[in-house]
Specification:
heterodimer; A: alpha+beta; Alpha-Beta Plaits; 2 domains; three-stranded mixed sheet; two-stranded antiparallel ribbon; 9 strands; elongated; B: mainly alpha; 16 helices; globular
C-alpha cells in the first residue's frame, strides 16, 4: 500500500497557494528566480509564474488557455515530481542517492549525490533541478514532504489547497475515487486517469476535462522507461564472463598453434639437415 | 629511442596557453558554480562535456584495447609497433575523461562515492567502475615504457609476467564500458529520437568503437610520424585500413536491421531535420570509409588512408553528438549552445593530452622498443 495524491483539474482555481506553501515548508525563498540568478522571470503573456520548475520551485501551476464546448476555458495543472512507481531517476543514479520508498515518495539523499545530473536527463517528466549557481550544488525536487508524512501530516501543498483539488490517500483508494468522479460526471471529465498506467504508474494522479497533453503533461506509454536499461544491466555479468573466457580461449589456441607450427618447422629443419 | 629530436616552441607554447586558459575557467567554476561557465540548464543538464569529453573521448580511446587485443591475444605481431602508442593515447584519453568529470560533476570531491555507494542497476555505475578499473589497467599496460626508460628491471619483469591477464582484463572492461555508454541512453526512450533509440544501443556502441579503434591508431600514428619524423611501415597502415570496412559493414547492417525490425526505417526519410544528421553520420562515417578502404590503391597511399580514417572518426563523433545532445529532446522552454568557457575547458584538456604525448615521445621509448613477447620466446 503506498501513498498518493490526486489532482482534479476541474477543481483547481490557480490560487497558487500550493506553490507558496511548498516554498515556505522547503525554505526555498533564499534562491529567488531573477535574471541575475540565471532564471528568467519575464512576462510570458500569462499569469504563470515562475515559468519553470527550478532548484527553488518544486511545484508550480501551469495555465492552459483552451477552447472546448464552444467556450473559452482556463484549465490549470499542478506540476511537480510524479513520484513514479518505477522511477527512471532512481535507476539512473550511480550512487543510489535517489530511492523509491515503500511508502510511495521518491526521496533524495544529498549525502550520497555526486552531482552527475543523470537523474535530470533520465526523468521522462523533466522534473529534477540543479543548483547551477552554487559552488556546492545539489539536485532539488519535490520530496512529497516526506518529512511531514513521517510526522503524520499532509504534504504542504495538499494541506493548503482551499478547493480540495488536491487530496492525499492510498493509491488504490484514490484511483477508486477518481473513477467515481469520472463516472459521476462523464461530461466534465475525459475517461483517463493520468498516472494510473503512465510509465508503469505514478504516485501523482490527474483527472481533467481535456486530454492531458493539452495541460503540459507529456504523452507517455505504459511501459516503465527503465525496462531496456534493466535488461542491459542484467546481461553485464554474463558478458563479463563470456568475453573473458573467449579472449583467454583465443589466446591459448593461437599460442598453441604457433608452438605446433614452430615445432613442425624445427622438425623440417632437422630433416633437411 | 627517438631518431630525430625536434622541438616545437611555438606549438608547445600555444598548447600551454590553452591549458592555462582551461585552468583559469576551472577556477571560476569551483568558485561560482557550473552556471558561471556554462550554458547548461535544467532543460539541458548534459552538454558539450558529456558529448565530447565522455562520449567521444571514451570511443576514441578504443584504439587501446583493439590494438592490445590484436597484438597480444590474436598474436598479430605486425602491429606491435603501434600497440604501445595506442595504449598510451587510450590511457591519456581516459585520464582526460576523469579530468573532464572533475569539472562536469557538481560534487567532484565526492567522486569516490561511486566506490562505496553502489547502484548496480545504474548504467552510469557500470561506466564509473569501468573508467576507474580500466584507467588502472591502461596505466599498468603502459608502465613498461617508463620502466624500460629508467631500466627498472624488477617491476618490468612483474608487468611482463601479468601482461596477458592485463590485456584480457582491458578487452573485457572495454567491452563493458563502450557498451555501457550506450546502455546509459536506454533510460531515455521517451526523449531520444526513435531513429537512434533502440534496445540494442549497447551493441551498436561497442561495434562502432571497435571500428573507430584502428582508425584512431592510423590517425595518431600518421600525425606522430609527421611531427617526430620516424617512419611507419605502410603495411601496418593498410592492414589496419583493410579491417575497418568489415567492422563498419557489420555496424551498418546492425543499424539498418534494427531500424527495420523496430518499424522505424521510414523515419530516416521522414523525420526531417533529424534524419539529415542520421544520413550525415552514415554517409561520412560508415558508407564512404567502407567504399574507400575497400580500394587497394587507397590502402597503399598514406594520405588517402589518413583522410579516410578521419572520415571514420568524424562519423563517430557526429554519432555520439547525435545520441547525447542533437537528437535528445530538450525540456520545453529551454535552449542550449555551449558557452565559450565550456569549449575552453574541452580544448584545454585536449591541449593537455597533446603536450603529454609530445613529452612522452621525446622522453619515453614509445615507438621503437624491444618486443617483449619475442624476447621471452
Amino acid at each position: 500500500m503506498s501513498i498518493a495524491a490526486l489532482f482534479d483539474a476541474n477543481r483547481c482555481i490557480a490560487c497558487r497557494g500550493c506553490q507558496v506553501a511548498c516554498k515556505q515548508w522547503n525554505e526555498n525563498d533564499e534562491y529567488i528566480p531573477t535574471v541575475e540568478n540565471g532564471v528568467l522571470s519575464t512576462n510570458l503573456g500569462s499569469n504563470e509564474n515562475p515559468p519553470q520548475l527550478s532548484a527553488s520551485t518544486f511545484t508550480r501551476i501551469h495555465f492552459s488557455e483552451l477552447e472546448y464546448g464552444g467556450k473559452f476555458h482556463w484549465v490549470f495543472t499542478k506540476l511537480q515530481c510524479m513520484h513514479c512507481e518505477h522511477p527512471a531517476c532512481a535507476a539512473a543514479c550511480p550512487v543510489a542517492a535517489l530511492q523509491k520508498t515503500p511508502e510511495g515518495p521518491v526521496v533524495y539523499d544529498e549525502g550520497k549525490c555526486i552531482g552527475c545530473r543523470y537523474c535530470m536527463v533520465a526523468c521522462p517528466f523533466g522534473i529534477p533541478s540543479f543548483e547551477w549557481d552554487s559552488p556546492v550544488p545539489w539536485i532539488r525536487k519535490c520530496t512529497f514532504c516526506f518529512d511531514r508524512l513521517g510526522a503524520g501530516m499532509e504534504p504542504a501543498c495538499v494541506k493548503t489547497c482551499p478547493t480540495n483539488a488536491l487530496v492525499l490517500g492510498e493509491r488504490d483508494t484514490l484511483l477508486t475515487e477518481a473513477r467515481r468522479r469520472i463516472n459521476l460526471r462523464p461530461d466534465k471529465y475525459i475517461n483517463h486517469i493520468y498516472g494510473e498506467n503512465e510509465v508503469g504508474g505514478t504516485s501523482w494522479l490527474y483527472i481533467s476535462p481535456v486530454p492531458f497533453e493539452q495541460l503540459g503533461l507529456p504523452l507517455l506509454g505504459n511501459d516503465p522507461v527503465t525496462l531496456d536499461a534493466e535488461r542491459a544491466m542484467g546481461a553485464v555479468p554474463s558478458v563479463l564472463l563470456g568475453v573473458a573466457a573467449a579472449m583467454t580461449g583465443v589466446y591459448w589456441i593461437i599460442k598453441r598453434r604457433d608452438k605446433l607450427n614452430r615445432e613442425k618447422a624445427a622438425e623440417k629443419k632437422e630433416v633437411g639437415k | 629511442m627517438i631518431t630525430k629530436k625536434r622541438s616545437f616552441p611555438i606549438g608547445t607554447s600555444v598548447l600551454s596557453l590553452l591549458v592555462i586558459i582551461g585552468l583559469v575557467v576551472m577556477i571560476i567554476r569551483y568558485i561560482n558554480g557550473l552556471g558561471a561557465i556554462s550554458n547548461l540548464s535544467d532543460g539541458r543538464p548534459w552538454g558539450l562535456w558529456i558529448s565530447f569529453d565522455l562520449y567521444c573521448g571514451v570511443a576514441l580511446a578504443a584504439g587501446g584495447f583493439t590494438l592490445a587485443g590484436a597484438v597480444y591475444i590474436f598474436n598479430l605481431k605486425k602491429y606491435h609497433s603501434v600497440a604501445r602508442p595506442a595504449v598510451m593515447t587510450a590511457f591519456l584519453g581516459y585520464t582526460l575523461v576523469i579530468l573532464a568529470l572533475l569539472v562536469d560533476l557538481g560534487q567532484p570531491w565526492y567522486i569516490w562515492h561511486a566506490i562505496i555507494y553502489w547502484n548496480i542497476h545504474s548504467p552510469l555505475f557500470e561506466v564509473a567502475v569501468c573508467v576507474m578499473t580500466y584507467t588502472a589497467v591502461l596505466a599498468l599496460e603502459f608502465s613498461p615504457a617508463v620502466f624500460e626508460r629508467f631500466k627498472l628491471n624488477f617491476p618490468l619483469r612483474i608487468i611482463r609476467a601479468i601482461q596477458i591477464p592485463l590485456v584480457v582484463a582491458g578487452v573485457v572492461l572495454s567491452t563493458l564500458h563502450q557498451s555501457s555508454l550506450g546502455s546509459m541512453l536506454l533510460l531515455m526512450p521517451t526523449t531520444l529520437s526513435a531513429i537512434w533509440y533502440t534496445p540494442v544501443l549497447p551493441i551498436l556502441f561497442l561495434t562502432s568503437a571497435i571500428a573507430v579503434g584502428p582508425a584512431m591508431v592510423i590517425f595518431e600514428s600518421t600525425l606522430s610520424t609527421r611531427v617526430f619524423g620516424h617512419k611507419l611501415d605502410i603495411g601496418v597502415l593498410s592492414g589496419l585500413a583493410k579491417v575497418i570496412p568489415y567492422i563498419l559493414g557489420i555496424y551498418l547492417l546492425l543499424k539498418l536491421a534494427d531500424l527495420i525490425a523496430g518499424g522505424d526505417i521510414g523515419l530516416i526519410f521522414s523525420a526531417y531535420p533529424q534524419n539529415l544528421l542520421w544520413w550525415a553520420e552514415i554517409i561520412i562515417g560508415v558508407i564512404s570509409p567502407i567504399i574507400l578502404f575497400s580500394i587497394p590503391g587507397i590502402r597503399q597511399n598514406r594520405n588517402a588512408v589518413f583522410w579516410t580514417s578521419v572520415l571514420v572518426i568524424l562519423g563517430l563523433v557526429l554519432n555520439r553528438f547525435n545520441v547525447s545532445i542533437l537528437a535528445l529532446a530538450i525540456r520545453p522552454g529551454y535552449t542550449y549552445f555551449p558557452h565559450w568557457m565550456e569549449i575552453a575547458i574541452s580544448v584545454g584538456l585536449v591541449a593537455d593530452a597533446l603536450l603529454v604525448i609530445w613529452l612522452a615521445h621525446r622522453f619515453l621509448p614509445i615507438v621503437n622498443h624491444e618486443q617483449p613477447l619475442e624476447v621471452k620466446t
